Amino acid sequence: AAAKLTKVASQYKSDIHIARGDRRVNAKSIMGVMMLAAGLGVTVTLDAEGDDAEQALDALANLFANKFDEEA
Predict the structure, then answer these.
(1) Beta bridge partners of 23
(2) Which domains does the chain have, with CATH numbers?
(3) Most exposed: 3, 20, 69, 72, by fewest CB within 10 Å?
């Protein structure tokens, strides 16, 4: 899931971050995302800033909504 998230985030020029609690990391960094240890059922917050921020957040929201295209 972390690899898919960073792959999608990296397709955009905007600065994109993911946060769990008070820890906020660059969503384009696989190591940062993995360090969040945000497993199933954990609440995270995404934010983006830049020219394509809205498109980036829409794409990432779709990824979450589709459960990262992984089998349950």
Answers:
(1) 20
(2) 2-69 (3.30.1340.10)
(3) 72
